[in-house]
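Researcher: Here's the sequence for the chain we discussed earlier.
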Amino acid sequence: MVATLVLLVNDHVLKQAWPGFVTGKLSDVAGLIVAPALLSLLLLRRADLTATLLTGALFTLVKTTHTGAELASQAWTLAAGPSRILADPTDLLALPALALAWWIRNHSHQVTRQWRIMVGVPLAVLAVGATSGPPAPPSAELVHVTDGHVVVEGFLTAASSADGGRTWALGSGTAARSAGKPQTLACVARRCYRIPADRLKVLQSDDAGATWATSWALSPGRTEWVRRALADPEHPTPRLRSHALAVQERPDGHVVVVANGRDGVAVRDTTGTWRRYGFTPDRALSTSAASRVTGMGAHIGDELRVAGLSGFWILVTGLLLALPGRRRSGVVVLGFALTGVVLLLPWRFEEWYGYYTLIRSADVTRAAFQVAGGVLVLCTLASTLSTAWRERLGAEALRQVLCVAVLVAAGVALPFHGWALGWPDGYRTALILAGLYGLGTGAAGLTIIRRNAAPAPGRPAPGRA
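Model: Thanks. This is the structure I predict for it:
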């Protein structure tokens, strides 16, 4: 019970006030004391040693493998809401707490199983509730120069550099905004730097602010791609922008440090070279942790789903057009197919329910839409294929339909693959290209399929007397 109280206080109070090594390991120690007692309630009687050993094995698996951490996160999310558990081998330092749990077991009073359940179930609820909230992602919001150090601060995180931004050390954990209002303009001699609104961008002036030119920037297309890379369902990423900057004079020149929110910081060294620093899992800053700005096929899952649904729609429509004669049932099938496609589109239900308070409602709605849409898509596809089989649709007609469907799906997806690689850079350009290609290719293909369709008995072929 004391360990459960430690979990509650540590996870909801101490971690927020003093995030770091001590509070992180304190939760592991307390959890390893509580877990064997709770796990033993699920096992047969007199299985306390098994529960203790199994706790250690599962803890080791979760903390040393990304697969184990992901499975644990999903299990915890089902039990207690959105949660995130990270693999961290240093947490294995808490394993000796299992010995303390076993010592407590052997030196506690013997009680009936019914009494243990009455006490243990509330403990389980408290323990799960204590660790259910995922940690907020770090964000660089302020930067200032203090006592020769460049200090970057954000929500419950701080980092400082004594060598002009080349390396960073974790701060002592003061709250964000301790330096006051974010600084958006800084000068050294006649050289000035400033950040514009709503952009990851730094402007530079060599004439004390009379004229300005871009010193560093991420284009809008790359900014959107990075925003997707940093997306977190529990902590949505707003539009990325530069929040503050600071200039520090060095013996061989000056450095510029820019706080870029969730993206970390950007640093201009004394040679004029800009580098981006991202947040590591322990909230430190490193160039190796900076988000990439391109990636083959990455972060375009919604667009690829739309491309696949476009191909499905062309497939069903093409099969119905290729069948001999006009069937009233074809209109009904197309209606059901369109309904399934609409339900499977990547809707953003979080905007309907709110990101934090009703996230589960959004997940339930999304799951319901996907199940209903999937059933309709499968049923309409099966119905269309069975009709084509009964009507003995020719192999040539079937190849034409498949060819058009594949061309449409691939053509809709291709511009977004290019956007993920940086060409075109603008997302709107990729969207327009995909739409024009999909509509043009689909319309042309369906027209050809209709013209080549076999005529119904007693009816001339389209385009023939």
